[in-house]
Structures are given as structure tokens and as C-alpha cells.
Amino acid sequence: MTNSTSKSASINSTVGTRSRVVILASGNGSNAQAIIDACQSNKVSADIIKVISNIPSAYVLTRAANAGIDALCIDHKRYPNRESFDLVLAKELDSLQADVIVLAGFMRILSEGFVNQFTGKLLNIHPSLLPKYPGLNTHQRALDANDEEHGTSVHFVTPELDGGPVILQAKVPIFESDSADDLAQRVQSQEHEIYPIVVNWLCSKRAILKSDGAYLDGKKLPECGYASE
Predict the structure, then answer these.
(1) Spatial separation of the C-alpha atoms in residues 111 and 116, rounded to whole Å
(2) Is 126 a residue of the active site?
(3) Domain extents for the chain?
(4) Positive or negative: CA dihedral 180, 59, 127, 174
(5) What CA–CA distances, in Å, run from 102 to 21, 22, 99, 140, 199?
(6) Which of 41, 44, 119, 133 has the fewest Cβ atoms nearer than 10 Å?
(7) Using an 8 Å Cβ cutoff, are 166 and 197 in contact?
(8) Which residues of 98-115 are buried (b: 16+ CB within 10 A; e: fewer)?
(9) Residues 6+ apart with CB under 8 A from 62
(10) 89 vs 84: CA distance, rounded Å
(11) Which residues, at least 6 apart from 160, have a Cβ–Cβ distance to it below 8 Å?
(12) Class of domain 3-9+19-220
């Protein structure tokens, strides 16, 4: 994370009421764990009311159980298409009255109708310095391009894949000897730092989505988010 984030990016919240957060994840869930830890230590003013996965064997479900959080699998393979899966997922989120929906390695492309239903509540983290490298294999793509830096972006979710307004980024250097795995580990350590910060910003209503982009504390954020330089 850039040095200039240290003061204004404070994770502490001044909001008295706790938001209702649902985490969607498909795999190991290390980002989910970072957010769980931040909520349970009151660094984020929120309660995680459920963790939902589309993969029955996803370890994130075990993480939730270990933390005493309700966990649910909605297996996407049981549904004939994306829209039918999204309808069931949306119904569940509606019943939970989620204030914030956090995608933490949720390996599903969400339908436009689903995204529009929860506009402004959906957060995602992507392992690149968006708008660079949307999609998959971002670490290898950064290496192949001989980039000198790489990183991660937390952004609002919109119907455009990895195209929603960026709220906060963290940058890491790329070294000559790096493999994609080396870079992935370096990026992931930053993800665990910045994702809880942005979740807290959204829960405390410091960060909001408007028609013309992302705002923090009433000020419109630039394309690369807060403290992008």
C-alpha cells in the first residue's frame, strides 16, 4: 500500500451500528479470513452473518465454521445457467438483509441483473492494478509485460468484468527473479491488508458508489482509487 494511505486509510470506524456482511468465496478463503479476523477484533464495525460458496469442498466453509459463522454452499452445478443460480443466490442475500456483499475469490461471473440488484453493496478484490489486466493470470501477464510493479485493487462491482470503480490499490515491486507464484504471494499479503480497510469504509458509509464513480468521504476518487500515486 502506498505510504500516503496510512492516515486516511485507518481501519477504525466511528459508526455505532454494525453492518451486516456476507462473504462470497469459492476457494481457500484467505481474504475471507482477513475480513473475519478484522470484524471479530472490532477493527471493522460489522458482523459477518454468513459465508456462501458455490463449491462444496471450498475450505472457506471450514474457515467460517471455525469462526462460528453460518456457512452455506449453493452449488452452481445444480443450476442450468448463470441466471438461475444468481436468482437463488439473490434470494438468499435478500433474506439475510445484507448491507455489504464481499466477493473474496468468488469465481463466478455474476449476471447483469444480479449486479444491478445489489449495486453499491458489492465489493471485489482483483490481483492487478486495474484497469491493467482484468480477468485471469494477472501475475504472469505482468511478468510477460516486463512491468516494474504489480498489485491489487479493491473495487465496486459493476456488470463490466473487473471494470467497476476502484476504491483502493496496493502496489508491490516486481523483481527480476520473480516467478508468478512469488508475485502472487507478495500481492496476496497486500490484499489481506487493504480489503478489510475498504470493507470498513463501505460499512461506515465513507465509501459510496455514485453514477459517475466511487467516492470516499464525499470526494470522487481517481481512476486508480485512493492514494494511487
Answers:
(1) 9
(2) yes
(3) 3-9+19-220
(4) negative
(5) 7, 6, 10, 26, 8
(6) 41
(7) no
(8) bbbbbbbbbebebbeebb
(9) none
(10) 9
(11) none
(12) alpha beta
Torsion of CA 33, 154, 38, 174, to 10 degrees: 70
Backbone angles phi, psi at 184, to 5 degrees: -60, -40
- Identify the residue whose cell numbers are 454494525: 18
Q: Please, which residues bridge with residue 21 across strands?
A: 48, 100
Total-model pTM: 0.91
pLDDT averaged per 10 residues, the chain (length 229): 41 62 98 97 95 98 98 98 97 97 97 97 98 97 98 97 96 97 97 98 97 97 82
Annotated active-site residue in 76, 126, 150, 192: 126
pLDDT of residue 17: 80
Residue 73: phi and psi, rounded to 5, are: -110, 125
CA distance 205 to 217: 8
Residue 216 exposure: Cα atoms within 13 Å on the Cβ side: 22
Can you read off the three cell numbers belonging to residue 228? Answer: 494511487
pLDDT number for residue 141:
98
